[in-house]
Amino acid sequence: xxxxxxxxxxxxxxxxxxxxxxxxxxxxxxxxxxxxxxxxxxxxxxxxxxxxxxxxxxxxxxxxxxxxxxxxxxxxxxxxxxxxxxxxxxxxxxxxxxxxxxxxxxxxxxxxxxxxxxxxxxxxxxxxxxxxxxxxxxxxxxxxxxxxxxxxxxxxxxxxxxxxxxxxxxxxxxx
Length: 175
What we know:
Elements: E1 2-6, H1 13-24, E2 30-38, H2 42-46, E3 57-61, H3 70-76, E4 81-88, H4 92-102, E5 108-112, E6 124-130, H5 138-143, E7 149-153, E8 165-168, E9 171-174
Parallel strand pairs: 1-5, 1-6, 2-4, 2-5, 6-7
Antiparallel strand pairs: 3-4, 8-9
Helix pairs in contact: 1-3
C-alpha cells in the first residue's frame, strides 16, 4: 500500500493520488481508497458528513463517475476500483481488515488517509504539507516523522518536489 496524508484539507492529496493512479494504472491494477475516521471534531478534518454512521464503520465501493467525490476522481484517473471507508476511530483496523478481505490480492492499493497509519505500516507513506504557516492537523504533527517523504504544496500550482512513484518487484517505490 501507498498511503498519502496531508497537513490540511485541500492541500493536494487527491491530486497526488490521482496523478499516481494515472501514471501506473496502464501497467498495474490499482485500487483507490479514501479512509476517514469519525471523531468529535470530524468536520475540522474531513468537512461535514450529512449522514451519520449507522454501524461502527461503512465501506462503499464507488460507482459514481461524476468526478465530484475523491473516490470518483480515482476511478476516472484509471483505478481498477475505488472505495470509501468511514469508521469509528477505535475500529479503523477492523474496518480496514474487512475492506482488505474484499479486494483482489493482485492489485496495488493507494490510500488517502492519515488514520490508517495508526493501524498499519504501508510500503510507502507520503505526507503533503502546505507552504503556509497554517495550523497543522494534530495527526500530521504526530505522524510526520514516520513519512518516507514530505511533499510541499502551495495548494495552487502543485508541488515543489514531486517524486516519481513506481512499482518494482511487486512493491511501491519512490525516486
